[in-house]
Design a protein that fits this description.
The chain is mainly beta. It has helices spanning about 60-70, 85-90; strands spanning about 5, 10, 10-20, 25, 40, 45-55, 80-85, 100-115, 120-130.
């Protein structure tokens, strides 16, 4: 398959980073050390996915097929969309064996390199959400 965001081919993905956090409620007792601390997992988990990639194409194709459609996803009233990860598509256990994550776009940073070949490099930060 291909890496996609909301069905949009996002080109050659160079890095994919998952930052999964479970903020724990902690209780420290006087005169104790950290190994004596109690930590309670109340079930809050936050997954941020950062994807960096590159596309080499014509100026028109880069603007029409990548920049504009990805930019339009941040509209002030986002609905959850699907991010498909080829790496996670290879997993055989867990919640993401199909490689699909329900996400919203936190940021889309892109840089267009103009020359003989036009290239787009980008960073997408996605937050898992429904």
């Amino acid at each position: 398959m291909t890496y996609t965001l909301n069905g949009i081919d996002i080109g050659q993905v160079q890095t994919e980073e998952h930052d999964v956090r479970s903020p724990l409620d902690t209780e420290v007792h006087p005169y104790s050390v950290s190994k004596d601390m109690e930590a309670v997992d109340e079930g809050n988990v936050l997954r941020k996915i950062t994807v960096e990639g590159k596309v080499v194409d014509t100026k028109a194709n880069i603007m029409n097929n990548y920049v504009q459609p990805l930019d339009a996803l941040q509209n002030g009233d986002q609905m959850a969309i699907t991010f498909h990860s080829d790496m996670w598509d290879l997993t055989t256990v867990g919640d993401y064996t199909d490689g699909n994550f329900s996400v919203k776009v936190e940021s889309f940073r892109h840089k267009i390199h103009i020359g003989e070949e036009t290239a787009l490099t980008y960073t997408l930060v996605l937050v898992e959400s429904t």
